[in-house]
Amino acid sequence: MPKDEVFKESFTKPSDFKFSSKVAGVFDDMVTRSVPYYEEMQRMIGELAGDHYKDNTNIYDLGCSTGATLINMNETVPSHIQFIGIDDSPDMLEKCRQKLKEPGFERPVKLEVADLNVSVNIDNASVVVLCLTLQFVRPINREKILKSIFNGMVQGGAVIIIEKILAEDSTFNRDFIKYYYDMKRRNHYSEMEISQKREALENVLIPYKLSENIIMLREAGFNQVEVFFKWYNFSGFIAKKI
């Protein structure tokens, strides 16, 4: 796995973070070292998808990046169910195509370039996944995306979301961020790498509180919402259309 050294060199002022070819080439290492319990999150998504898919429907992965979630769901969802992966980065989708050619992935799958800030077409979906995706959608467009998912989902369908979040109380928020950066240090990121990536993400990744995400899901029409994962400033939740 190529090592993430995107922010290892000093920049006068880091530009806004982009999912470029450089990032795509090291993304698997980047996300594994930057997101707590990432592999466990992926395993949980696979389990949830395996229990909530319905025959003759589609499963969507919005912000599918290099295909980790598609590969994990492939283990738990029957091979006749079509997967649809959507991402706004052609470089990430190209990396995803390469990984899906590896042995063991045999099912109908479509990969599409689309900007979730503009629109997304969801049709006949029983499962929709947004793994570390909604946080990159501009806040003004998030409710619209969730409503599109709800409208394109069959009864009994589920949306599975992993997000970086803000604490409900600012005091805890400072503590959680400190613990998060400690985790990055344990995973061998330098102080400069941590600082430069934080600056690059400042205007790109805009987290909400867990309660705010739950309110958005309920207002979009989802009747049942439950948290299935929580680690300081990261959380996973599932919402069903009943």
How would you describe what is shown here?
The protein has 242 residues and is α/β, with parallel strands linked by helices. It has a single domain (21-240), classed as Vaccinia Virus protein VP39 (Rossmann fold, 3-Layer(aba) Sandwich). Helices cover 41% and strands 22% of the residues. It has helices at residues 21-34, 38-52, 68-74, 90-100, 139-151, 170-186, 191-201, 210-220, and strands spanning 58-62, 82-87, 109-113, 125-131, 153-166, 208-209, 224-231, 234-240. Strands 1, 2, 3, 4, 5, 6, 7 and 8 form an eight-stranded mixed β-sheet that branches. Strand 7 (224-231) and strand 8 form a beta hairpin. The radius of gyration is 17 Å and the shape is globular. The model has no long low-confidence stretch (mean pLDDT 95).
Topology readout:
Layout: H1 21-34, H2 38-52, E1 58-62, H3 68-74, E2 82-87, H4 90-100, E3 109-113, E4 125-131, H5 139-151, E5 153-166, H6 170-186, H7 191-201, E6 208-209, H8 210-220, E7 224-231, E8 234-240
Parallel strand pairs: 1-2, 1-4, 2-3, 4-5, 5-6
Antiparallel strand pairs: 5-8, 7-8
Short description:
This protein has 242 residues and is of the alpha/beta class.
CATH architectural group: 3-Layer(aba) Sandwich
Q: Mean pLDDT, as a whole number?
A: 95
Task: Give the low-pLDDT segments.
Answer: none
Strand count = 8
Q: Percent range for helical residues? A: 40-55%
CATH superfamily: Vaccinia Virus protein VP39
Question: Span between N and C termini?
Answer: 41 Å
> Number of DSSP helices?
8
Report the portion of residues in β strands: 15-25%
When the domains are counted, the total is: 1
CA-atom Rg in angstroms: 17 Å
Give a quick account of the main beta sheet: strands, pairing sense, barrel closure: 8 strands, mixed
Give the CATH level 1 class. Answer: Alpha Beta
CATH topology: Rossmann fold
Can you write the helix and strand succession as a string? HHEHEHEEHEHHEHEE
The SS-based structural class is: alpha/beta
